[in-house]
Write a structure and sequence with these properties.
Helix 2 packs antiparallel against helix 10. This protein has 317 residues and is mainly α. It has 10 helices and no strands. It has 3 domains: 28-91, no CATH class; 93-188, no CATH class; 204-304, no CATH class. The termini are far apart. The protein is elongated.
């Protein structure tokens, strides 16, 4: 009788099973490394992208009832450069730079801390858990850093539009805000900021986690090319812009020099809808889209590359 044609020698089985076995447990990033890498990434990114943030904020503050001062993005840039030179596009950079470093540090530190607790036995983080980790990171950065930082930044930029600017620099501006409005003056629009940052990071980390898992497939430790990371980050940033620009507009109004006109975050939203219509909730979308796509792409690229370097010189396993 002939041998069974489908018989497989036991000597070959270990090889087949090894080939089909998963690549191993995913390596975790120590929160300390995440804090350091995030801070470095945040500082470099804001220096590159700040002019788009400046234009976005100016267009959002340019209320229809005033009447509008700017006809659009190009006109805003032209008027700013004509009136203040190219340096005018960097007005308020110091306040954002001082805040961007701790903001990114808190964001990535909290995300890695939470994600390390929520990964499965193989070290994999699914997209749903990535969303909740991103939400936690966004809320943390909003309360600890973003709200006071954004309030000062918006007041600086809005102050430049005044006939007689009163802030001479970052520390002078912060001192004047606290002197005239108290510490609460740096926490205007906290609710809107928490909603914005929480939804921002929830969306971004959800998209990034989904794309990373798709790209890595069965190998959780598969290396991702920096250009691919940048493309994933840009897409995640774009999704977050279309998902929460209305919250960003409300936050900006609540932190401007005319924030006293609004009783609350809800009242601000109602008045914008009543006096300016639904389109006003998407003011500054184009410059914000360009800025955020660059922002998220650059931050994730730098963050991942810095973590790789830290893994070589800082052993935490």
């Amino acid at each position: 009788m002939s041998r069974n044609p489908i018989f497989v020698s036991p000597f070959h089985r270990p090889h087949c099973l090894a080939a089909a076995a998963p690549a191993g447990k995913a390596k975790l990033t120590h929160p300390g490394k995440a804090i350091l890498a995030g801070g470095i990434a945040g500082g470099i990114e804001i220096c590159i992208t700040f002019p788009t943030e400046y234009v976005k904020t100016q267009l959002q503050l340019d209320e229809k009832a005033n009447p509008p001062r700017y006809k659009g993005i190009v006109d805003c840039v032209k008027q700013t450069v004509d009136g203040y030179g190219v340096r005018g596009l960097y007005r308020g950079l110091s306040s954002l730079l001082y805040g961007s470093i701790p903001k990114a540090a808190v964001r990535f530190g909290v995300f890695e801390f939470l994600s390390n607790k929520m990964r499965d036995e193989s070290g994999k983080l699914d997209s749903t858990r990535g969303l909740f980790c991103g939400l936690g990171a966004g809320v943390a950065e909003a309360v600890v850093v973003v709200c006071p930082m954004e309030t000062v930044k918006v007041k600086f930029i809005h102050d430049q539009s005044s006939a007689n600017p009163k802030y001479r620099g970052f520390f002078h501006g912060v001192r004047e805000i606290i002197r005239t409005e108290g510490l609460r003056g740096t926490y205007q629009g906290l609710t809107a900021t928490v909603l914005k940052q929480g939804s921002n990071q929830a969306i971004r980390f959800y998209v990034m986690t989904s794309l990373r898992n798709w790209y890595k497939g069965e190998d959780p430790n598969k290396a991702i090319n920096p250009l691919v990371t940048g493309a994933f980050g840009a897409f995640a940033g774009a999704v977050s812009v279309f998902g929460n620009t209305p919250l960003d507009v409300i936050k900006t109004r609540m932190q401007g020099l005319e924030a006293h006109k609004y009783k609350s975050t809800l009242d601000c939203a109602v008045k914008i809808m009543k006096h300016e219509g639904p389109k006003a909730f998407y003011k500054g979308t184009v410059p914000r889209l360009g800025r955020v796509c660059m922002d998220v792409a650059i931050v994730f690229i730098i963050y991942e590359e810095v973590v790789k370097v830290l893994n070589k010189v800082w052993k935490t396993d």
